[in-house]
Amino acid sequence: MSKKSYWMIIVAAILCLALAATGCGPGEPNGNGEATELKVGMVGPLTGGAASYGVSIKNGVEIAIDEANETGELGDITLKLFAEDTTGDWSQAANAFSKLIEVDKVNVIVGAVLSSETAAGGPIAMDAGIPTISPSSTAVDLTKGNPYLFRNCL
After folding, report:
1. Positive/negative CA dihedral, 67, 87, 152, 123
2. Mean pLDDT calculated for residue range 108-119
3. 10 Å Cβ neighbour count for 73?
4. Residue 17: CB atoms within 10 Å
5. What mean pLDDT, rounded, does the chain reach?
6. 136 with 153: CB under 8 angstroms?
7. Which domains, and CATH codes, for the chain?
8. Which residues are within 8 A (CB) of 53 and not within 5 positions of it... i.e. 6 or more apart?
9. What is the rounded distance in angstroms from the CA atom of residue 78 to the CA atom of residue 105?
């Protein structure tokens, strides 16, 4: 897969997830003409041995968010990114999912990047009812039994 195709998949996935998630909670328009904020969490290794994957995905998410906010494609909804570094460790991924959900109150999560991270964090997001898409987890069974977890990696 070419680098351009990879970025297009990331951008398309984020925009689709953001559009789908607008009906999933505190993203309701407030009716007074002010923008409503949709919080997008990102979980992945931003440092450590797998950082090249996590940083690339984070950059793709940032591009998609900037484009969506600049073009106004989501109407009065603005997107804001909250990124958490796992260093590639599954236990840090579980903590990152918990922080994004409980502290940052994200509406959707992109990640995790590695299958082991997604296996640790996916059930946490499911229990909270937070839609999650992993752009790079390859373990096929991750989505079984979790209606909130999606993968777009073949």
Report:
1. negative
2. 94
3. 12
4. 21
5. 85
6. yes
7. 37-151 (3.40.50.2300)
8. 44, 45, 113, 114, 136
9. 15
DSSP states along 18-82? HHHHTTSSS----SSSPPEEEEEEEEE-SSSTTHHHHHHHHHHHHHHHHHHHHHTTTTTEEEEEE
Residue 72: CB partners within 8 Å, gap ≥ 6?
A: none
CA–CA distance, 52 with 147 (Å, rounded to integer): 29
| Tens-digit pLDDT profile for residues 3-50 | 554 444 554 455 555 545 444 444 444 556 666 999 999 999 999 999
Question: How far, rounded to the nearest angstrom, does the alpha carbon of residue 107 sit from its chain's CA centroid?
Answer: 9
CB atoms within 10 A of CB 16: 14
The pair of three-digit structure tokens given for residue 103, joined into one six-digit string: 């502290």
Query: Which residue carries 């499911």 as its tokens?
Result: 126
Joined together, the tokens standing for residue 105 give 């109150």
- Work out the end-to-end distance of the chain between its first and last CA atoms, rounded to an integer number of angstroms: 11
Distance between CA 88 and CA 83 in Å, rounded? 14
pTM of the model: 0.79
